[in-house]
Each structure stands twice: as C-alpha cells, then as structure tokens.
Amino acid sequence: MMLLKLLTAMGSSPFRPVVISLGNCGTVGTRIEELGVPVHALNLRGGSPSPRGLWQLRSLLHHVQPGLIQGWMYHGNLAASVARLFSGIRAPVLWNIRATPDDLLHGKASTAAVIRAGAILSRLPQRIIYNSRRGAVQHAAIGYFTPRSLVIPNGFDCEIFKPSQEARLQLRQELGLRADSILVGLIARFHPMKDHATFFQAAALLNARHPNVHYVLAGHRMELENAAIQAMLQASHVTDKVHLLGERHDMPAINAALDIASLSSSSSEGFPNVIGEAMASGVPSVVTDVGDAAWLVGDIGRIVQPGDPAALAAAWSDLINIGPDARRAMGARCRARVLSEFTLNRVANKYADLYGELLIGRNG
Predict the structure, then answer these.
(1) Which residues pair with 185 in a beta bridge?
(2) CA–CA separation, 346 vs 40, rounded Å?
C-alpha cells in the first residue's frame, strides 16, 4: 500500500516507474496500473526467485533498461540485487525494508533464510531504506551493513484522512448505535503478530468499567466466519459490543468515526500506517511499543507494552475518562503532528531527492 501511495504522490515527478512483482499483480497491482504505471507479474511460486524467474527478471530489465532499481521488502530486495548481477545492467540498486525482524527470524523458515541472506548481501545496494528507526537498529544488530542506511518513514495523505463529523454519524447509524457511543477501533488484518487476543482480553476488562464502549475491527478475515476470531470473541464475553467489518475500502471514513484508535501488535511492526491514518483523521491512539509506533505517536497518545491487556484497557480508560472535548483536542494535536512530520508529499520528496542524487551521481 505504501508503494501505491508513493507512486501516486510522485505522479508529477520526472521519473517513469515500472513495477515488477515476483508474485501476481493482486489488487494493489491493478490500482498501480490505473495510475498509468506498467506492472509486470512474474508469478513465481511463493514470490521467491528461481532460475527461471531470474531469467525472466533479467529479460525484463534488458527490456526496461532502468536507470535505478528499487527493491521493495525482503524478497524483492534480494531479487533486485541478484538480477542486476546477472543482467549486466549497471543501474544502482536500493533496498527497502518495511518491518522489524523480531518474530520473522523465528517464524517461516523461508522468510528467515531470506532475511539472513540479506545480511550477507547487504553491502551490494547503494542505499538501504528503512521505514522505521527501530527496524534500522534491529537489522544492524543481525549484520546488515549500516553506512549506507537511512530512514524514510511512511507518509499519510491528509486530504483523504481528515476529521469528519458526518463519518462519525454514518458509521454509528450503520452499526445501529447511539450518536454518542464511544468507538475503540483496531484496523488490522488477521495475523498472529497483530495480537487480536490481547485486544479482546482488554475489551473484556474495559467492559466492566465502561459498558457503553463499542469495538470496531476491520481488516482481512476480521469476520465471524473466521473460527479463531469467533473463539476469541466467545472467550471475551463482549460479543454484543464488537463489530467485525471485514475488509473495507472506506478506511478514511472508518478512521474518522473512531474515538480511540488502537494497535495491539506483539511484534514485527515497522512504521504502522493505521495509526498515522488515524492521527491524520484527528483520532488519538493507544499503541503497543512495537516498531516506531512510539515515535509516531510522540507524547500525544498512550504507549503500552505488548501482550498486556490490563495496560491496554487502562490506557483506553484514561482517554475515555478525559471526555470528548479533551479527546478532540488530543486529536487536533495528532493531526498537527502528522501535518508537520509525516505527510505523503514530504515522504515522496525524500524519495525523489534520493533517486535524483543517485541518478546524477551515476550520470555525472
């Protein structure tokens, strides 16, 4: 999604991007194509390079003749460097790392192997771009080359994500709730590292003190048909207060409707988009101290340790107890922070400046 947003923001730049997907195009690839950016899908099994895939990639590079090659995430980074070595093209290569290694090194064996291979090959790229400070530190600790690394955080479109009283009323009407109902939200796909179990346990604790609070969850597989989510709900005994929206495409409206945005992740976050989008929407946040969530929130929201439902519930309770006027004031400060530090245009300009610097260096 950040790649899509970056390409959108750089639409008026002098660069002519071409995207190569190791897997299929997917819905994001289709949206990138709608920008007028060519997308080539190699359809590799598991998105991992193979001799056939590298030959396809080599052929594509010879056809495109890129001035610069930007890898995107672990597999794409390795593919970019290896393909350059075998293609004979002398374009500078950049890597882009958008996670903290944390549990990834102890999870799927193939992903862990790619991360470790990246450490060995990390002297190859001209730059390694991290989207979080914590990600840069943790990768350096496992052997990634640091002299050419830099941090460019995610950016947020504050014209799309903004406060909206209309959105607040519409979502409450959709859910059949009173206009003054308090909504605590978690926007996250279903995945163990998002730690929905802690969120539901915290909701059960908060419900005893604030029975008027409702919980809105949106994201891939956030639906009752998901047996794991159904089991968590039943164990928490707050089924009547939880609203599972599934995968939605009206996230600006969902964000603007919340009173409190949450991040309950246990690990492996980089720079959480969902919190930046909520802050741009004028919504204060309670986040776990993962990735650069604490840097993003600054001194405005609440930060708790991962896996601590009591602390999460207590932080929600703090923001509920201060009342709606104080929450709106916090939300205004959140939006001001994003406007000052994390706008999409500001981030896109950093990429454009870096690309220009490398291309001038190559041609100069």
Answers:
(1) 216, 261
(2) 28
Q: What one-letter code names the amino acid at 364?
A: G
189 Cβ contact partners less than 8 Å away, ≥ 6 residues apart = 219, 220, 221, 222
The rounded distance, in Å, linking the Cα atoms of 269 and 135 is: 9
pLDDT in the model for residue 11? 86
Q: What is the greatest pairwise CA distance in the chain?
A: 67
- DSSP per residue, 267-293: S--SS-HHHHHHHHTT--EEEES-TTH
For residue 285, the cross-strand partners are: 261
Query: If you write DSSP's letter for every residue of 144-182 in order, what string do you get?
Result: ---TTEEE----B-TTTS---HHHHHHHHHHHT--TT-E
**pTM listed for this prediction:** 0.87
What phi, psi does 359 have (nearest 5°)?
-70, -40
Alpha carbon distance 54, 147 (integer Å) = 28
Q: Tens digit of pLDDT for each residue in 76-119?
A: 999 999 888 888 888 999 999 998 887 666 667 888 889 999 99
Phi, psi of 90 (to 5 degrees): -100, 15
